[in-house]
Amino acid sequence: MITTAKRLDIIEEYYFSSKLREVRQLASEGKPIINMGIGSPDLQPSQAVVDAVVLAMQEESAHQYQSYQGLPELRKGMADFYQNNFQVALNPNTEILPLMGSKEGIMHISLAFLNEGDQVLIPNPGYPTYTSVTNLVGAVPVYYDLKEVNNWEPDFEALEKLDLSKVKIMWIGYPHMPTGARGSLQLFEKLVAFAKKHQILLVNDNPYSFVLNDNPMSLLQVEGAKDVALELNSLSKTFNMAGWRVGMVLGNAACIDAVLKVKSNMDSGMFYGIQKGAIEALKSDKTWFESMNAIYRKRRILTEQLAEKLGCKVYKEGVGLFVWAKLPDGITSAEKFIDEILYDKSIFITPGTIFGSNGEGYIRFALCVKEEKVQEAIDRF
User: Fold this and answer.
1) Torsions phi, psi of 250, nearest 5?
2) CA–CA separation, 172 and 121 (whole Å)
3) Which of 13, 207, 252, 308 is deepest in the core (most CB within 10 A)?
4) pLDDT confidence of 259, banded at 50, 70, 90?
5) Which residues contact 246 (CB under 8 A, 6 or more apart)?
6) Alpha-carbon distance 170 to 103, whole Å?
7) Where residue 375 falls among pLDDT bands split at 50, 70, 90?
8) Using alpha carbons only, what angle is made at residue 85 by residues 286 and 258, rounded to the nearest 5 degrees?
9) Is the dihedral of CA 134, 243, 215, 230 positive or negative?
10) Which element (helix H / strand E) includes 190?
11) How many CB atoms are located within 10 Å of the residue 337 CB?
12) CA of residue 56 relative to chain centroid, distance
C-alpha cells in the first residue's frame, strides 16, 4: 500500500469541500436546499467581458502557451485599476504578477518565503487556507486574536508580547473575511510600522474591497508599504468571475520576483481568452459597482432579517459578501446550531468555528442567494 506524505497528517480536507458533499447529498434526496454558506457569486460578469472572451477565441495565438507573467496589457490594466481606484502607482513590469486566482497566491508566497520551522502570524478568525498552506510547507502557525470588542482588529500590545524572532509572514485581510470589518488606513499604517520593526513580510488579502463598501482601500496606499508588503486581489467577487480564476499579487518588486520563481515552475500561463476578459473587466467604471451593490444591499437587508429571526445579533458595521452574526444567548455550539437548521429547514449556513476558535459563537451568511430565496428562507421559520 502506498502511504501518503506526512504533510497530509497535519491538514484536513477544506471544510467546504467535505460539507458541500453532504449538502449535495441532501439535495439529491429531494431536500429543497438553500445554500447560504459559500461565497460564490451567482451574479454574471458584464456582457462586455463575455464578448471580449468570445472575440479572443478567433485570434491566432489564443490557444498557445502564455507568458508566466501574463499579457503586458493585463498587467497594465491591473496597474490602471489600482491607480484609478486606490491612487496607488505600480510598475506593471516589476510590481504586478497575475495569478490563477488569489488563493494560489497564498501557496506561492508561502513557498517563496517560508522554510521549515519558520512562523506565520495568522488572524483568528480568518481564512482557513492561511493555516493549511502554512502547515503544508512545514512552517508553524501562530494565531493572533481578532475580537469584536476591538472591532475585529489586531491588539498590537498583545502582538508585541509575542516572541517574533521566527515570524516570517503576517497575513491580514481587510475588508475582513469572515466578519466584514472594514479596517482603516490608520490600521494599515500601524501594521506597516509593525512589519518594518520586526522585519516581517506583511500580506493583505483584499478581494472584498468593492462589495458594499463605500471606501475601498489598499494596504499599498500607506507610504513605505512596498518596503515590506504584498497585496493579493481578485476579480472573483469584484466582477463575478469566481470560476475564471483571475487574481493578482502586487507590491514589493523583489518579492514579486521571488513569487514568479515559484509560479513559473507550477503552471504554463493563464488562458489567453480569460486574460482578455479580465482586461475588459478592469476597465469597468463606478456604474458597475453601483449596480452590483444595489443588488447586494437588498440581499443584505433580507439576510439580516433572517439572522435576527434566528435570534442572532448581526454585526451591522460589516461590508463585503457576508453577514456575520452572533448566536443567541445560551447556544454553545455554532456547528450544532447550523446542522439543526440544515436538517430541519434545509438551509445551509457557515459556522464561525471553521475560521478559528474566535469564530465560536458566530455564524456567517453569504449574500450569493437571490432575494426570493432569502425570503423563502425567512418564511421557513
Assistant:
1) -135, 150
2) 9
3) 207
4) very high
5) 98, 99, 100, 101, 234, 235, 236, 270, 274, 275, 277, 278
6) 16
7) very high
8) 135
9) positive
10) helix 185-198
11) 19
12) 29
What ranges make up the beta strands (E) of the chain? Answer: 34-35, 96-99, 119-124, 140-145, 167-172, 201-205, 229-234, 247-251, 313-314, 322-326, 347-348, 350-351, 362-366
Contact predicate 237/211, CB 8 Å: yes
Residue with cell 430541519: 344
Burial grade of 285 (CB within 10 A; 0-12, 13-18, 19 or more): exposed
Q: What is the largest CA-CA distance in the chain?
A: 64
Spatial contact of 71 and 47, defined as CB atoms under 8 Å apart: no
Which one-letter amino acid corresponds to residue 26?
A: L
175 prior amide bond cis, ω within 30: yes
Phi, psi of 335 (to 5 degrees): -70, -40
Cell, residue 327:
448566536
DSSP 112: H
Per DSSP, the three-state class of 22 is helix
| pLDDT tens profile 192-242 | 999 999 999 999 999 999 999 989 999 999 999 999 999 999 999 998 888
Please state the pTM of the whole predicted model.
Answer: 0.93
Is there a cis peptide before residue 125, judged by omega within 30 degrees of 0? yes
Query: In the block, which residue shows the cell 437588498?
Result: 298
Pick from 330, 298, 296, 295: which is nearest to 312 by CA? 330
Query: CA angle at residue 211 from 208 to 217, to 5 degrees?
Result: 60
5-58, pLDDT tens digit by residue? Answer: 888 877 776 666 677 788 888 889 999 989 998 888 999 999 999 999 999 999
- Whether the Cβ atoms of residue 36 and residue 178 lie closer than 8 Å to each other: no
The three grid cell numbers given for residue 30, joined into one nine-digit string? 429531494
Q: Cell 488572524 identifies what position?
A: 123
* Cis amide leading into 178 (omega within 30): yes
Question: What local confidence, expressed as pLDDT, does residue 268 receive?
Answer: 85
C-alpha cell recorded at residue 78: 491591473
Which residue reads 468571475 in cell numbers?
241
Nearest Cα neighbor of 305 from 240, 378, 367 is 378
